[in-house]
Amino acid sequence: MVMTVIDERSVDAYAAHGDELIRFATGLVGPSDAQDVAADAMARLMSSRVWMEVENPRALMYRAVLYEARTFVRSRRRRSVARLVLRFGRRMKCRILLRRFPLRLLD
């Protein structure tokens, strides 16, 4: 487990932009997962070297949430495919189903 010391700048930045980052994440991953995505993005960002050197923290925070949301969606898609493989037993059927149905219908 990695321990991160959160400095005052990080706390202030999240306090100032946290709500809007969660709204942004809601548009990317939906309301049920938005807080987790935003929190994971901030934890990863604030423990990086880049965070201490950034000139525009708000822009970097948005980018971090975007990348975390992309990772989350890819992971959710892989889990959906795994469920389909277990259900139907063949990858070919899953590929055909994934082309025909949007991800939101597979959950």
Task: Offer a few descriptive terms.
107 residues, 80% helix, mainly alpha, 6 helices
List the helices and strands and how they pair.
Blueprint: H1 8-29, H2 34-46, H3 49-53, H4 57-88, H5 91-100, H6 103-106
Helix pairs in contact: 1-2, 1-4, 2-4, 4-5
Descriptive notes:
The chain is mainly alpha-helical and 107 residues long. It has one domain (8-106). Helix content is 80%, strand content 0%. The protein is built from 6 helices and no strands. Helix 1 runs antiparallel to helix 2 (34-46). The longest helix has 32 residues, at 57-88. The radius of gyration is 17 Å and the shape is elongated. The protein starts with 7 loop residues before the first helix and ends with a helix.
